[in-house]
Amino acid sequence: MATFDSTAVRLKTGEEITVRCAEGNDAEALLEMTRSVIAEGRHHLTKPEEFNATAEEEKNWIHQVSQSPNRLILLAEIRGEIIGMLDFHGGEKKRLRHTGSLGMSVQKNWRNRGVGSVLLAILLKWASNHPELRKICLEVFADNEGAIGLYRKAGFRTEGRLVHHVRMEDGSYTDLIQMCRFV
Ligand SMILES: CC(C)(COP(=O)(O)OP(=O)(O)OC[C@H]1O[C@@H](n2cnc3c(N)ncnc32)[C@H](O)[C@@H]1OP(=O)(O)O)[C@@H](O)C(=O)NCCC(=O)NCCS
Question: Whose CA is nearest to atom 27 of ligand 1?
Answer without folding.
Answer: 146
